[in-house]
């Protein structure tokens, strides 16, 4: 069993506070987080939870689709996956993820567009991040005061 870990810290109030997030793997360390990065996409060199979800989803889906294509006997030469996570005001107040778009461009020799569409859907169903985002995973919360 593999367990992936990350750490985040935050100081201050939501609107004017800031934080950072790091991955245990050190693939990224101390990436700045701000509320502005979540709500105003003109926030260079800062990330947001939604951007990190988009990156995780694009990466996961590319692997799941590559597997689905390979299992069908049509391994891809190249897959390009873009994920867009929409963070919008919610009815009744607050903000939330309203939808996620996955866009894929693929080079798969000898595969018909119809079969590719079937396998693309199969890959999405086999993507663990897609499944978690659809509510297929429990969250265990452990909270304590310092």
Chain-wise SSE layout:
Blueprint: E1 6-11, E2 18-23, E3 31-33, H1 35-39, H2 49-71, E4 78-89, E5 95-107, H3 113-125, H4 128-133
Antiparallel strand pairs: 1-2, 2-3, 4-5
Helix pairs in contact: 2-3
Provide structural commentary.
By secondary structure, this protein is of the alpha+beta class. It is built from four helices and five strands; from the N terminus they run βββααββαα. The chain has helices at 35-39, 49-71, 113-125, 128-133, and strands spanning 6-11, 18-23, 31-33, 78-89, 95-107. The strands form two sheets. The chain has a three-stranded antiparallel beta sheet. The radius of gyration is 18 Å and the shape is elongated. The mean pLDDT is 91.
């Amino acid at each position: 069993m593999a367990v992936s870990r990350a750490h985040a810290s935050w100081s201050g109030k939501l609107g004017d506070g800031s934080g950072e997030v790091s991955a245990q793997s050190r693939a990224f360390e101390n990436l700045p987080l701000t509320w502005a990065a979540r709500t105003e996409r003109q926030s260079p060199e800062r990330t947001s939870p939604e951007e990190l979800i988009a990156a995780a989803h694009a990466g996961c889906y590319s692997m799941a689709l590559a597997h689905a294509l390979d299992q069908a006997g049509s391994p891809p030469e190249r897959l390009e996956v873009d994920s867009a996570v929409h963070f919008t005001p919610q009815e009744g107040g607050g903000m939330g993820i309203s939808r996620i778009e996955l866009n894929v461009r693929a080079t798969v020799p000898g595969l018909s567009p119809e079969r590719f569409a079937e396998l693309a859907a199969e890959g999405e169903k086999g993507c663990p991040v897609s499944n978690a985002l659809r509510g297929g995973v429990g969250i265990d919360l452990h909270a304590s005061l310092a």
